[in-house]
Amino acid sequence: MPELSLSVAGAQQSVAAGTTGTDLFGSDRAVVAVRVDGELRDLDVVLDGAQAVEPVTIDSPDGLSILRHSTAHVLAQAVQQVNPDAKLGIGPPITDGFYYDFDVETPFQPEDLKKLEKAMQRIVNTGQRFRRRVVTEEEARAELAGEPYKLELVGLKGSGAAEGAAEGASAEIGAGELTIYDNVARDREGNEVVAWKDLCRGPHLPTTKLIGNGFQLMRSAAAYWRGSEKNPQLQRVYGTAWPTKDELRAYTERLAEAERRDHRRLGTELDLFSFPDEIGSGLPVFHPKGAMIRMEMEDYSRRRHIASGYSFASSPHITKAKLFEVSGHLDWYADGMYPPMRVDEERDADGTLRRQGQDYYLKPMNCPMHNLIFDARGRSYRELPLRLFEFGTVYRYEKSGVVHGMTRARGFTQDDAHIYCTREQMRDELASLLTFVLDLLRDYGLNDFYLELSTRNPEKSVGDDATWAEATAVLEEVALASGLDLVPDPGGAAFYGPKISVQARDAIGRTWQLSTIQLDFNLPERFELEYTAADGSRQRPVMIHRALFGSIERFFAILLEHYAGAMPPWLAPVQVLAVPVAEPFNDYLEDVVAQLRAAGVRAELDDSDDRFNKKIRNATTQKVPFVLIAGGDDAEAGAVSFRFRDGSQRNGVPISEAVTIVRDAIADRVQV
RNA sequence: GCCGCGUUAGCUCAGUCGGUAGAGCGUUUGCCUUGUAAGCAAAAUGUCGUCGGUUCGAUUCCGACACGCGGCUCCA
């Protein structure tokens, strides 16, 4: 029998012709697929002609994707078992799970998901094998005659457009051959029966048994076929799948933790903000405690901006249409703006126009206003870089389906700055700006970052190629110099210029896009901004847009979730809550609170009629950083006792020392 | 904007197969109060999201709208 030599898991080895991945790794149940010369393949692939083969275990990123993809197939099989008329869309793996889209008469209800889960479990338990079969386009068309969406994918593949067909479509039709996977079960006599089949690139698990009971259907939702609202809406079922039940449990616990931290929930529980229906969707009001957090966030930011050479600006919330015609916003983003208010229009009794009205718009961005400030008088190169900063409140008419708490609001306040500089200054300015941004974010308690570079979308941009290329190159250089990971985001730029965005990971590992630094060669052009250079010539400044928090509301929400409501002392609305052991110590603590307040600490006394234990509980649920307790022992010693958030304590601390401890924790912006 | 689900006291939620409603927490009041997560008792509180329709009668059934939630789409 001919032998072949290949690298098996990194070691050169000689194996018989016809050897499969199963032969090599089948004894290890954790191995669910193989990587053959870089390509993921089914475990039972015949290795003839291969150079190198690596095992893929179920707990590796590739293995998890395969697990989730196979689970998606089982879902589709279950759906067609329950409802043979369901047409299949696509069903790729996604982060932590999978989805599958179906065209069905009636959308899935929660009870349907329960039923489908049961049906899936039965399929899993039968231990079906996934068997790969290469088909020609004609064969595929014949077999999939009843699956219009799959046929469309086959057609797309024929035209070479598969990759762009839809997010996830490549999971069904890869780059290579067209393949169908048969799900093979055994009947009572032990004969093989094809229970189900699906057009699919694979690879898949060797058997559905490996799905075990580590999967769960999460929710259903509508989704447009191939992601376009011009196409029919399919019903999407989301699920999650893990190698073991324990890992599934850990995942659902993570979700529960995220829900406990949800800023909308914490906002209510901690009395920070609300969204009154009377005001309108996406328009929050801040309650005293929330407003205090916000004020601290803003004040600290202002001080840092002053220290870094920023000038401050302030501008109105509405403006005549003309300004947004000049800026181009009405051309590009009128849909995202609140409709105009028409003022000063006069008509005769018969309705004929007597006096032309004027349209005013709520501003969706601050930059046009800042440009007018720049342009209010002649500017010299000696003034550059000119850094205009404003907490500018903007209004965007987000579609009703996307408004989401404070992370996606319709009215929000940007910590917005526009920097006008010369081309020569651009590089240094961007470099110091990125440092400034990252330092400031760290002061708010975030420290795990990566960067994203968004480059031009040719279909949605203005300006010439050379300008874009230069701007992009400078941004990339600065980003790389930061030493942080840089992820490309092709086509993700705004219409007026490329950008770097800072992505931050929070305490439970989620990433948020925070600061953006955008270059803009186009607005200075539109506003005809100029400065006088050293040689007396008129030059056009470069404009840099940057927001650090993005919006205060959104950053507030992110910090709230990051800290799970337990804000560090400097941001906490109530920094100290004084709790007497019993009523006779109210006066004693009243005096302590007065001393703390004199030292600039936000301190309160709990002199309610609640019992001591209840007061401790209230302080805990309100997540107050320092609870100061005093009873007989403390009062006699002129001391107080600390109770910290973790339940630990420090008793008998002299009052003056206690004030110092609290004041220092606030000044140092530490978490406690 | 699209699809689905939801909206009952300040909050979380139960309930009414059509005859106008409950719990816990919170609030108010009274009695109480000495060491680290809920003292006891009483009371008050709802146009059952809004507007229409069906009905003798609608919080309940139907429709529209508003708001919210999960996605899609979008995200300067």
Topology:
Elements: E1 3-8, E2 11-16, H1 21-25, E3 31-36, E4 39-42, E5 52-57, H2 61-82, E6 87-88, E7 93-94, E8 97-103, H3 110-126, E9 129-134, H4 137-143, H5 148-158, H6 162-165, E10 179-186, E11 192-199, E12 215-224, E13 233-241, H7 245-260, H8 263-269, E14 273-274, E15 285-286, H9 288-307, E16 311-312, E17 318-320, H10 321-327, H11 329-332, E18 341-343, E19 346-347, E20 353-355, E21 358-362, H12 367-374, E22 386-395, E23 411-421, H13 423-443, E24 449-454, H14 465-481, E25 486-489, E26 499-505, E27 511-520, H15 523-526, E28 531-532, E29 538-539, E30 542-547, H16 552-562, E31 576-580, H17 586-598, E32 603-605, H18 612-621, E33 626-630, H19 632-637, E34 639-643, E35 649-654, H20 655-667
Parallel strand pairs: 1-5, 16-22, 24-25, 31-32, 31-33
Antiparallel strand pairs: 1-2, 3-4, 3-5, 6-8, 7-8, 8-13, 9-10, 10-11, 12-13, 14-15, 17-21, 18-21, 19-20, 22-23, 23-30, 24-26, 26-27, 27-30, 28-29, 33-34, 34-35
The protein binds one RNA strand of 76 nucleotides through strand 12, strand 13, helix 18, strand 33 and helix 19.
Are there runs of 5+ residues with pLDDT below 50, and where? Answer: none
How big is the Rg?
Answer: 31 Å
Class by alpha and beta content: alpha+beta
CATH class of the largest domain: Alpha Beta
> Overall pLDDT, averaged?
90
| Number of DSSP strand runs | 35
How far is it from the N-terminal to the C-terminal residue, by CA? 71 Å
CATH superfamily of the largest domain: Bira Bifunctional Protein, Domain 2
Estimate percent helicity. Answer: 25-40%
Number of domains: 4
CATH architecture of the largest domain: 2-Layer Sandwich
CATH topology of the largest domain: BirA Bifunctional Protein, domain 2
Biggest beta sheet attributes: 8 strands, mixed
